[in-house]
Amino acid sequence: MNLPWRPKVVVGLAVGTGAVAFAVSLRTLLHSFSPSAITLATLCLLGVLWGATFLWPLRIYRGEETVLMHLDEGFFVALILLVPSAAVVVCSTVAVFLAMVIRRVPAPKLGFNTGMIAASVWTGAAVAGLVNHPHGAITPADIAAGLVGVVAFFAVNYFAMSLIGLALGQSFRTAVVEGLDMNLLITGGCLTLAIPTALVISASPWALGLAVLPLIVLRRVVAGHFEARRDRARLLGLFESTLEINRSMGAEETTEAILTSARGLLRCSDATLADQEHAAGALQAPLGITDEPLVLGVSGRGASEPFDRADQALLDALAAVGATALTNAALYQEGRLQRERLAAITSSLGEGVCAVDRSGQVTFVNPAAVEMLGWNDTPELRGHDLEVGLDFGIRAPSFILAPAMRAMAKVDTITNYDTRFTRADGSAFHVTFTVSPIIDDGTATGAVLVFRDITERKQFEEQLARHAFHDALTGLPNRRLFLDHLDHALRRSQRSDEQHAVLFADVDRFKIINDSLGHHSGDQLLIAIANRLKTAVRPGDMLARFGGDEFTLLLEGVVTPEDSVACAQRILDRMHEPIILPDGHEVVATVSIGIALTDPNKTRDDVLHDADVAMYQAKAKGRGGNFEVFDVEAMGTRSAERIDLEAGLRKALHRDELVVHFQPVVSIADGKVVGAEALVRWAHPTRGLLAPSHFIGLAEDTGLILPLGRVVLERACQQAREWRERFDVPVAVAVNLSARQFQQKGLVEEIEDILVRTSVDPSQISLEITESLAMEDAERTIQILTRLKKLGVKVSIDDFGTGYSALGYLANFPVDLVKVDRSFVERVEVDPVKSAIVSAVVNLSKAIGITTVIEGVETKEQLEHLRGIGATIVQGYYFAKPMAPEALTELLSQSMFLEGGAPARPPVKARAGRRRVA
């Protein structure tokens, strides 16, 4: 690694100074250091952690650069308060040196980093020793001395980093000023944890292992924060790049937009688009254009930020967008050339074409333009054939004349990708247009403007944006938007001590109404309730549909609890009048409301939990139409009923009261049962057969989900083996893995043991995890799923579409199936957005070799629509509800397969709001 002379001088100074500091400290250590066991353990543990921060540094992305941070100040102050200064210098120097060696960094960088640490630690320790020499228990004077030492340590460290930056040619602002605020902020965070950690270790040496946990947690939290910021910036960048690329119409402009986006999104200095693979070390992705195979490649990123899977996925997505844009650009270019050559047939174009002369008179307008501009009844156009060169006596409107005049003045083509034209009746519509001058002997004699109505595209973009944050049924903000507003409100309350209130409203007896009148009437009832709730809230209050029959309301800046009580009372008053549904049914609907007030010490989940508890307390009053304010003394502990239910569930595991039902999975092609999903039920001795919604949440909270999950998996495996032995058909059985099961250690070994004990063919078993669980820690998920697949089982993603992943992530996970959530199947036959989403998942899954299962099919219309968009495997109440294993065995034994996509018996009537929990 050849360096210019200035950096060489800086590196030499760092190495020399560090060597002197290390040598002096080592000599002192050898003559006077006789540590106790706890001192030696403290030194080793903190030294190892310090070295680990250099092995796995904290990456902070700043502009075009990646900055590595190591939380040095925290480890320095903790060590300087607990062990002799010479030991701190030797320990830190050895830790950093070993970390650099393990990382195989170049020799100059190894020497600089090691020397810098040795010199800065020695200086900080010396300054701290001058202020106060620590002895015995840590005193305020020791802490003050340690803080002074940290200042000296930070100053030397920062000075060295700035000096090497200047020597390498960075500007003063880049090398010295930028990032100083972030360094100081992280240093402050380190000190707030390191000093208490040292105090704990000093007071209770036995707590050494626990005491360092906050430092580890701090590092993880900060790393997660910056990674989340980076991911968010990437997603926003990809979205903006997609819009920018799609706005480009010419090939060169589109290519430049693609390359600019690639350099910006991937933080690389070089981006190229070539017809051959790039050099080694470059990240590349094919564009997939058959006529002209192209490869998009990026390179020139710093060695401290190597390419990873996320980078590859991002480049693949950008390449897909670029391929479409380049194809469109080529088509547009070809069309433009054809229009120039075949001007005589422009009247047949679907785009509007209008020609004007230098005086501003319209000389040509094609039928499409007449239609879009609303000129059908213009007297000047009646009786004329629309031919080029006619003087219609129409003065071009300003929105056409202005760009035409600019094109004639510049003698060049002008393009606008998003503007508005005005119709004859005064209404406006969105267009994209291109205007070109008409050249005669080198002089512009007129101009031709070609425009296209993009109103539908704009509406679709707005619809997509609205769909992401609003409920499709009621039009209210959805759960995601509500939680975002609540997060912002809680952050403001921490700064200003404002108090807010959350009202959690649940429709009483909605399931009874929904089951008796049908899900369509249930939907209409929810719409009517939402409209009444809107009339009860103040302007600016956030009213949202939280899910199902639940609504939430955020009241910001409440002065007293009585403000929220008054709002709750207004809501109850609005609900007194009966609701007349469109189908004529008259319904008296009530809601139960729980009220929770925010507190600076409460998180978002705390506030929602409190409101939920208060709501159930209101329901407990009976009759419906009640509200309750959360009281921690009265409601903060578990109810007696919940305690009894937990005790009963524990007994149920030993008394064999848990039973497993199976819902058939059906092939659309031939209507046959190709598998089943295992769903648990509780045969309660006094309450009868309980659905999962009554006890799964409790099982998750208490940890009973682990033995419960083992029971379900074992019985599903036994049943799968029995069906294979009886029918000689490998009936596939799907089993859900809960979040706790998936996160437990030894999961793979436990599943392998069950497979062996039940003697089931592993290929019959499909293990399902939810999309949100898969995305929580993608790298760990991939590792576990890979190990599970080695056992021979299949793996599927359940409830796909309800989390935050992109379709492209499917290719990253080693899964065999993806199950589309039932929320996308509701009204799929009439909702184009849902239909497009399901179609995209089906097509992408086919492309990458993954089977798609569509859940929640409840009507024939849904089935036929899904058949039309390419779905092959479905599941839902239209075919069969979950049934006991004996019933499904009888169904198989009598060959009662579903023929032609029609049920063998009348389907169960669809019910809205139904939830399935394994």
Fold blueprint:
Blueprint: H1 5-32, H2 37-55, E1 58-62, E2 65-69, H3 72-82, H4 85-103, H5 107-131, H6 140-167, H7 172-177, H8 180-203, H9 208-211, H10 213-247, H11 251-266, E3 270-274, E4 283-286, E5 295-299, H12 309-341, E6 352-357, E7 362-365, H13 367-373, H14 398-410, E8 414-422, E9 428-440, E10 443-453, H15 455-469, H16 479-496, E11 501-507, H17 510-517, H18 519-536, E12 542-547, E13 550-555, H19 561-574, E14 579-580, E15 586-587, E16 591-597, H20 604-620, E17 627-629, H21 632-635, H22 640-655, E18 658-667, E19 673-684, E20 688-690, H23 696-702, H24 705-727, E21 732-736, H25 739-743, H26 747-758, E22 765-770, H27 771-776, H28 778-790, E23 794-800, E24 817-820, H29 832-847, E25 851-854, H30 860-868, E26 873-874, H31 885-893
Parallel strand pairs: 16-17, 19-21, 21-22, 22-23, 23-24, 24-25, 25-26
Antiparallel strand pairs: 1-2, 3-5, 4-5, 6-7, 6-10, 8-9, 9-10, 11-13, 11-16, 12-13, 14-15, 18-19, 18-26, 19-20
Helix pairs in contact: 1-4, 1-5, 1-6, 2-3, 2-4, 3-6, 3-8, 4-5, 5-6, 10-11, 10-12, 11-12, 17-18, 18-19, 24-26
Question: Key terms for this structure?
Answer:
single chain, 918 residues, alpha/beta, Arp2/3 complex 21 kDa subunit ARPC3, Beta-Lactamase, 5 domains, 8-stranded mixed β-barrel, 5-stranded antiparallel β-sheet, 31 helices, 26 strands, globular, disordered C terminus
